[in-house]
Write a structure and sequence with these properties.
Layout (H helix, E strand, L loop, with lengths): L4 H6 L8 E2 L10 E5 L5 E5 L8 E3 L1 H13 L3
Length: 73
Amino acid sequence: MNPDKTHLYDLDLTEVTWRKASKSGSNGDCVEVTDLPYGAKAVRDSKNPHLTALRYTAAEWDAFRQGIITGEL
């Protein structure tokens, strides 16, 4: 089963391991990412970890990455 967006937002993220995005700067403005089931990802602002993390399906994450790689974003 490949979860839809609703299922991704039902996941409890209190015990996940967050990692700083490799392209985040050293000035404290960091984006953190964690892996979710089925290739999905969650993203949060490290300065506001109490806010709801954004969640992306594997297809959305891949489209985002491709946009960065190709310079579209």
